[in-house]
Structures are given as C-alpha cells and as structure tokens.
C-alpha cells in the first residue's frame, strides 16, 4: 500500500496522496494546475478520478496480473477466461471514455490530475503488456488522449522507468 509521510502527517493510498501533494504544492514551482480552482471543474476532476478507480483500473489490473504478475511472482499460467472477460469489460469502459473525450484533448478539457491518475494502469497494458494496445488504438479519441498524456516529458520519463523495471528484473 502506498504511504506518504510528510513531517508528522501520514496519508495512504495513491489517489489521496496525489490530491494531497497537488493541494500542498500546486502553483508553487510552476504554472501547472492539476486541480482547477473552479469548484465545478474540480468536481469533474474528482469524478474522473472516481471513474478511474471504479471502472477503468479494475479490468486493467486483471489483465496486468494475469499477464505479468501471476507468472513472474507466483509461477502461475495466465487464465485465458479471465483475460477474455477483462478485455470485454475494458472495451465497454473504453467505449464510454471514447464518448467522454469527444471534442476534448483531456478528460476535463485541460490536462489535470484526472489524466495523471490514469497513467500507471494505462501504461501497464499499453506500454508493457502491449497485446491489448488495440483496445485504445481502435478508439480515436481514447488513442489521441493517451498519446497526448503519455508524450508529456515528465510522464514519459517516469513510465519508461517502470517499463525498465519489468523488462530488466525477470528474476524478481
């Protein structure tokens, strides 16, 4: 479980940690606004973070577990039925995202924490387990959104480091 200690303060779970860090540092080191000051747009960012946790991440986690984690850490073969079901579930979610992204560059219109929280799970099955990238590529709005997010320098750099871990540590 992710945990952050900040002085005497402790917070757990990746999404609350992200919100905390944005609240603490937004606007202090650059002009990037990850949670808008407008209450309506901030609410929409939270909505997309909730979508990611509730709908987007679960099928991706199943795919990644089956194709990378189970074999590597538990010496289990992937279960084709679980993979099939997860792909079907993810396809439905991506169909919704395709509609949500119509006419937008990012989930909330402008780049925000909503886009950022989608990065790890998307990269797991788009950049590391690439057999599922067609699920994104067949949906132009989703594909273009992911390409915009991924091609931000800081995102690309951190995700490539993750890929290096999975490629270079086969015996972990």
UniProtKB/TrEMBL annotation:
Keyword Transferase included in the entry's annotation: yes
Catalyses which reaction(s): RX + glutathione = an S-substituted glutathione + a halide anion + H(+)
Gene3D superfamilies named in the record: 1.20.1050.10, Glutaredoxin (3.40.30.10)
InterPro entries xrefs: Glutathione-S-Trfase_C-like (IPR010987), Glutathione-S-Trfase_C_sf (IPR036282), Glutathione_S-Trfase (IPR040079), Glutathione_S-Trfase_N (IPR004045), GST_C (IPR004046), Thioredoxin-like_sf (IPR036249)
Domain of life of the organism encoding this protein: Eukaryota
Organism annotation: Gigaspora margarita
E.C. designation(s): 2.5.1.18
Transferase recorded as keyword: yes
Pfam entry (one): GST_C
Name this protein carries in UniProt: glutathione transferase
Location of the GST C-terminal domain: 38-172
Residue intervals of the GST N-terminal domain: 1-29
Sample GO molecular function, one term: glutathione transferase activity
UniProt keyword terms in alphabetical order: Transferase
GO biological process, one term: glutathione metabolic process
GO CC aspect terms: cytoplasm
């Amino acid at each position: 479980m992710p945990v952050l200690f900040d002085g005497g303060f402790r917070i757990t779970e990746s999404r609350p940690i992200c919100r905390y860090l944005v609240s603490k540092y937004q606007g202090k080191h650059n002009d990037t606004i990850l949670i808008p000051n407008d209450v309506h747009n901030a609410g929409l960012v939270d909505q997309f973070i909730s979508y990611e946790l509730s709908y987007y991440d679960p099928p991706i986690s199943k795919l990644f577990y089956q194709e990378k984690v189970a074999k590597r850490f538990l010496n289990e073969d992937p279960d084709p039925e679980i993979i099939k079901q997860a792909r079907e579930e993810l396809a439905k979610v991506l169909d919704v995202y395709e509609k949500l992204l119509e006419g937008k560059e990012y989930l909330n219109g402008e780049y925000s924490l909503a886009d950022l929280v989608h990065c790890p799970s998307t990269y797991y099955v788009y950049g590391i387990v690439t057999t599922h990238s067609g699920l994104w590529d067949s949906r132009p709005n989703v594909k273009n959104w992911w390409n915009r997010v991924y091609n931000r320098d800081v995102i690309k750099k951190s995700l490539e480091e993750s890929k290096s871990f999975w490629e270079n540590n086969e015996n972990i």
